[in-house]
Amino acid sequence: MPAATTTTLSPSAPLHGLLIRLRNAWHAFAQERANARSGTIHSPVWNPWQIFWGEAYGLDLKRWLLKPVFENLEQEGKIGGLIVDVGSGAQPVTRFIQALPGRKRIFVDIAADNTGTGDEQKIRMDVEKAGEPAALSFRKAIVRVCRFLDVAPGRSGPAKGADMMVFADLLNYVDFRKVLRGFGNYLKPGGRMVIVNLPMRGNQSLFSDKGLKDNRELYEFLQEHRFEIEHKSFPCRDPKATDEAEELIVLVARKAA
């Protein structure tokens, strides 16, 4: 596999402050959960989905991480016309990508409302069901996607594959191999996956036993399934550090043609 571009960015002062606020917010939430469990307080605990994926989730960090990546890919003509945002939440990061005539976005999330417009469609589905013909939610999703794209479904799904798929802050919570493999089947040859993940970051009570715990597992999976890593960076890693295993990673991988 050709060597990928690897960079390390030193957090600026504003970003450093943001990271501190995110850490403090997490500690406050953890304390609230602990108090609720012990009976110290009786008010309901805020829905974890809202904290990590809902309207209240701050996009500043993801904007800083992903917007330059999307802009570079756009300049190089590598985004294409069909984008799938997997585990999109209430604030899809693919909205950072420029809207162009003919460009369409599909947002897949377990809490999506199945609504759509001319160029965007929300799909409610457990992302671990991707590629499972026996799963009712997957069959319904295929019907909605085909209707949105105005294509006829083939035996295994829509005839038109995606140009880009984005997995942001998701792979800790799911069987990451199953999810990447399931969605990867609907990625065009030459299409790209964009992945942002920090192993062990988030609501650990919701983590999957088969979630991503070491970035090297991700590299191995991508190589095994004939993806070329075109870019990877570790924006918050100490410049002197060399270990990649549990660092926040931003990665772009191209599916073999």
Structural class: alpha/beta
Q: The CATH topology, please?
A: Rossmann fold
- By CATH's scheme, which homologous superfamily applies? Vaccinia Virus protein VP39
Order of neighbouring strands in the sheet with most strands: 1-9-10-8-7-2-3-4
The ordered H/E elements are EHHHEEEHEEEHEHEE
Strand content: 15-25%
Total E-strand runs: 10
Mean pLDDT: 82
Name of the level-1 CATH class: Alpha Beta
Q: What's the architecture in CATH terms?
A: 3-Layer(aba) Sandwich
* Amino-to-carboxy terminus distance: 14 Å
Q: Any low-confidence stretches, pLDDT <50, length ≥5?
A: 7-11, 28-33, 36-56
The gross shape turns out to be globular
Secondary structure: helix percent? 25-40%
Count of discrete domains: 1
Radius of gyration equals 19 Å
The number of helices is 6
Task: Note the topology.
Layout: E1 5-7, H1 13-38, H2 48-52, H3 60-75, E2 82-86, E3 104-109, E4 120-124, H4 136-149, E5 153-154, E6 157-158, E7 162-168, H5 176-184, E8 187-197, H6 215-224, E9 227-233, E10 249-255
Parallel strand pairs: 1-9, 2-3, 2-7, 3-4, 7-8
Antiparallel strand pairs: 5-6, 8-10, 9-10
What would your notes on this structure say?
An eight-stranded mixed beta sheet has the order 1-9-10-8-7-2-3-4, sandwiched between helices. It has a two-stranded antiparallel ribbon with strand order 5-6. Strand 7, helix 5 (176-184) and strand 8 (187-197) form a beta-alpha-beta unit. The longest helix has 26 residues, at 13-38. The two termini are 14 Å apart. The protein is built from six helices and ten strands; from the N terminus they run βαααβββαβββαβαββ. It is an alpha/beta fold. It has helices spanning 13-38, 48-52, 60-75, 136-149, 176-184, 215-224; strands at residues 5-7, 82-86, 104-109, 120-124, 153-154, 157-158, 162-168, 187-197, 227-233, 249-255. It is 31% helix and 21% strand. It has a single domain (5-255), classed as Vaccinia Virus protein VP39 (Rossmann fold), CATH 3.40.50.
